[in-house]
Amino acid sequence: MKTSEKAIINNEIIRHVVCFKFKETANLNQINQIEKEFSALPHKIPGIISMEWGKNNSQEGLHKDFTHCFIVSFESEEAREVYLPHPDHQLFVSLLEPVLDDVFVIDFTPK
């Protein structure tokens, strides 16, 4: 049985939801680079089961100028603890700083 399958059975999975609001000065190339670099993290950091992401397409108008949402699934709380200070994650965070206006993060264990 794979580690990710055990995590599902034992209800250890952590979902890490990250939403970005970019600065008005952020250009398309910069935003594309952020999408590419964040999407690459599951291949660089152990313990990430999956990542889904997309651009806001809600018609409700409640997005508060947040345009991108990423959902990272970790096999355990320990995997998330490895991810946060991981050098590849920290490098990604440094790429965000010049273009990010705001970020929203919430983590949860699915029920």
> How far is the first residue's CA from the last residue's CA?
22 Å
The CATH class designation is Alpha Beta
CATH topology grouping: Alpha-Beta Plaits
What oligomeric state best describes the polypeptide chains here?
single chain
Topology:
Layout: H1 3-9, E1 14-22, H2 28-40, E2 48-55, E3 68-74, H3 77-83, H4 87-96, E4 100-108
Antiparallel strand pairs: 1-3, 1-4, 2-3
What does this structure look like?
The chain has 111 residues and is of the alpha+beta class. The chain has one domain (3-108): 2-Layer Sandwich (Alpha-Beta Plaits), CATH 3.30.70. It is 33% helix and 30% strand. It has four helices and four strands. A four-stranded antiparallel sheet has the order 2-3-1-4. The longest helix is centred in the N-terminal third of the chain and has 13 residues, at 28-40.
What's the quick description here?
This protein has about 110 residues and is α+β, with helices and mostly antiparallel strands. The two termini are about 20 Å apart.
List the main descriptive attributes of the protein structure presented here.
111 residues; alpha+beta; four-stranded antiparallel sheet; Alpha-Beta Plaits
